[in-house]
Structures are given as C-alpha cells and as structure tokens.
Amino acid sequence: MPAPESARHTPRAAVPQADRTPHPVVDGDGHIVEALPVLTEVIRKVAGPDAADHFLGSSPTYASRSSTDGRLAELTGDQRRPGTWIPPWWSLPGNTLDRATAFLPALLHERMDEIGLDFAVLYPSVGLVASGHPDDAIRAGACRGVNTYLAELTDGLQDRMTPAAVVPTHTPDEAIAELEHAVGSLGFKAVLVNNIVERPVPGGPAGARWYDVLALDSVHDYDPLWRRCVELGVAVTVHTPTMGIGLRQSSTRYVHNHIGTFAAGGEAFAKALVIGGVAHRFPTLNFAFLEGGVSWGVQLLADLVGHWEKRGGPNIAALDPAGLDAALWDDLFARHGGTHFAAPGLAAGLRGQADNPPPDLDDYRGSGIASPADIARMFERFYFGCEADDPTIAWAYADSLNPCGAVLRPLLGSDIGHWDVTDMREVVGEARELVEHRHLTPAQFREFACDNTVRLHGGMNPRFFDGTRVEQYARKLLGHA
To answer: Across 338-449, where does the E strand assignment appear?
Structure first.
C-alpha cells in the first residue's frame, strides 16, 4: 500500500519571489494537461464527431485507467516484444495539489506567487499527439480543438500566463491555416510547431517510414510557414519527442525511451535549420528547442564549426584525392608496402579509394555560412529550454571553450504539470542553486530565469508581454520603455 501523501512529500518552504531575486522569473515552458473527456467535447464542437471519436483513443499516455485503449495492455506480461515501444506511463505529478494544478489553469494562476513565478508560457500535453496524428482530418480537427480548449481555459488569466497553440506541419498549407486561426482568431501569441513528420517511404515496402525535419530535404517547401511566422510575430518553438524512433524503442523501459528524447528532436531540427539555410534566409526569426537542455546545443555548435572547417565551402577541396602527389604516393608504397601491396596497379588504385563524391560537394551550400562566426551568429537566435535541476546549464556560458567565444541562450522551462516536477514550489529554488553553487553568476541566472524567454518572444512581438505582470520589465529589456 502506498505511503500517505504527507509522508511522501516534504517540500521546502515556499519563499516569496520578492525575497529571492531582484528581477521577475518567467517560465518559458510549463504545461497544461488537457482533460480528455472535456477536450473531446471541444473537438466535437469545432471539428465534428468523427474527429472527436477517433482522436479519443490516440493517447495511451493520458488515457484513464478505465480507457478501452489497448496499447498499454498489449505491453504487459508476456506480450512485451521487440519493435513495440512502451509509451509514457504515470506521467503526471504524484501529489494531489500539483496534479490538479496541471489540469486547472485558474488554480495555477492562483498559485503563481506561491510557486515563485511571475509569468509562464504554457504548452499543451495531448497537443503533441494531436499534431502528429497520421489522419489528415483527425489531425486538423484535433489541433483546432486543442487550441480552442487552451484559449477557453486561460481566458482572463493573461496577466500571468499565455498558452502555446499547437501547429501541425504535415503540409505547409495546413500549418499556415492553423497558425493564422490560432493567432488571428483565437489570439495566441506563442505556438508549438511540430518539427518532425513521419511519412511513408515513396515506393518502399509496406510500413516503411522516414522522418521529415522540415528544414532540409523535405518533400515540401516550408519557407512560406517560416515567412508567415515572421509576419505574425511568433517564434518557432518545438517540443517533439523521438520516443519510438530508432534507438528509443524499448518495449519494457519507458526511462530508456525518455532520456534524450527532446534533445534528439531539437538537434535534428536545429541542424536542418543551419545546414538547410532557413536560419540564413530568415535572419529575424527566433527558434526555441524545449525540454532537451542546452548541452546538446553546445556540442552541436562545436560540431557544425568543426565540420565546416574541414568540409564546408572551399575547405572540402583539401580532401579531393585528385590533389594527391602521385609520385610520392607510389614511392611510399614501394618502400613501405612490402609484398602485401606489390601487385601491379594496386597502389594507383588505392590512391582513388573513397573517391565517390556526389554532384554537389559542399554540404554547407545555401546555408549562408562563410566562416565559423556566421554559425555562432545563427545560434544567437536559438533558445534552449532547460529544467531547473539541469546541472549542465553552465555549459552555455563557457565562452572560453565554446567556438567563437559563443554564449548560448538557455531558458527556464519548469515542465510543471508533468512527472519531472515533484513539487511545483521547489522549481525556482532548485534553479537558484546554480547561483548558490557558483555555477552561474547572478547576471547569468537573470538571463536564464527571465531575460532569454522575454527576448525569444518579445524579439518577435514587442507587445508580447503587454498587460502582464512583467510588462514594464520586458519593455525596458527590449528597449521599448
């Protein structure tokens, strides 16, 4: 029998925010957990009964114990099998007050001071399932329903929170349609863009799938979507898990599938934005990769720079075997090859081994990159959502090690509403430990816990924070005071 809740939770005392920091705390990634029965009725209202009834069984993660969905049941006991990955389970908070708070934005609004947050951007949970649904009509209807649900539940609470609308991206047209409805009709200021689309392999065997990351080698041109984001003043924020893909397919261990899932989805998209030239073609568009931390961003920056220095632009020519000294090559093999390399023509043939280039030699073509500094400048518009207990946040500020002396832009993403947060009142205090342990300076903590989220959204829409508790601070930071 489980221990009483009071015995399982010994939260630290909540400290008033005013006593803790001289600046606001802005949560760049909290969560609302959609109540499936209520959400289904909203979908029914805006998209019809077919979309509602078919979507109801799409999310074993958030289904109730009494659900008839068989996905979890088939993964129990002897039926666990390779190739069938176990989805998240017990994914919501384990204490009563926080669990209710995840469902009820009005309760979160009431508790903001207790939790220590001045403002929060709240992302959907079931919305991640909606945006990736394979059926076109169900996907469109479910996303429209999720966004309507979020707008209705947060109406009147905008001084302390704003929801992010979910934008499906199986085609640019469907993405733009929902983006324009969410921003223009429902009044959203933040959006969650699905950055990985599972597609059938053209001409491939039944069931074969590949994953489109939108910004590179896509079957569609998504530039109209990025352009519309700029015009509407919304940042592109992504939050796509990769559980069930590649090496995250354990049928028995959710933790195996979960670790690194958002980082992998963010890295694939970020690489595509740089190499595919989107970051170059849209120099005012901000991007955020949520819930994956920033350590992968540091590594990606180093890898993109390192690869450009060896293979980018004119540097690739140094690897062309046509530039080898044939006479020296033959002499080296004659003197050091012995009998193993004595066959006539062998040495000459080896000189051309791996001489198999594609028609276009420069993998950085079209990226707008002419030097490592260009890559570092692109990362100035990349923001990385980090949870409060992430000890690697300090790596973002390791300018003595990072290429070009770069400082990356981590932002506080509490993940309140999910199992990661055992007590909502501990989030800000846990983040402050980075300063107490001297991993961050107070100025760096201010950037992490406030300024970077303000810049992410306010840099796209200077009025993003108007009417909120942080309006004056945001105006001053953005130079609009």
So the answer is: 382-386, 409-412
Tokens 């992430």 sit at which residue? 390
The Cα–Cα gap between 355 and 351 comes to 9
Instruction: Domain count for the chain, please give it.
Output: 2
Calculated CA dihedral for residues 20, 25, 30, 32, nearest 10 degrees: 90
195: Cα separation from own chain's centroid: 8
Is 376 found in the same domain as 306? yes
Q: Among 7, 33, 17, which residue's Cα sits nearest to residue 95?
A: 7
- 322 and 470, same domain (yes or no): no
User: H/E element holding 6?
Assistant: helix 5-8
Q: Which of 22-47 are b and which e, b meaning 16 or more Cβ less than 10 Å from the residue's Cβ?
A: ebbbbbbbbbbbbbbeebbebbbebb
pLDDT band at 61 (very low <50, low <70, confident <90, very high): confident
Tens of pLDDT, residue by residue over 411-455, are 999 999 999 999 999 999 999 999 999 999 999 999 999 999 999
- Write out the DSSP string of 434-464: HHHTTSS-HHHHHIIIIIHHHHHHHTT-TTT
Q: Give me the domain span that covers residue 341.
A: 317-351
Collect all residues with Cβ–Cβ distance below 8 Å to 361 and sequence separation of at least 6: 316, 317
Could you tell me the two tokens for 444? 């760096």
Is this prediction's pTM over 0.85? yes
- What is the tens place of the pLDDT at every residue in 274-313? 999 999 999 999 999 999 999 999 999 999 999 999 999 9
Q: So what's the pLDDT on residue 216?
A: 98
Whether residue 378 sits in one domain with residue 332: no
Centroid of chain to Cα 286:
13
Residues 214 and 331 reside in one and the same domain: no
In a domain, 20, yes or no: yes
How far apart CA 46 and CA 69 sit, in angstroms, is: 24
Contact partners, residue 363, CB within 8 Å, separation at least 6:
275, 307, 311, 312, 316
Q: ∠ at Cα 160 (157, 164), nearest 5°?
A: 80
Strands (E), 209-284: 209-212, 236-238
| Kind plus residue range of the DSSP H or E element containing 193 | strand 190-193
Task: Name every residue whose Cβ is closer than 8 Å to that of residue 152 and which is 6 or more positions away in sequence.
Answer: 42
Residues 343 and 410 in one domain: no
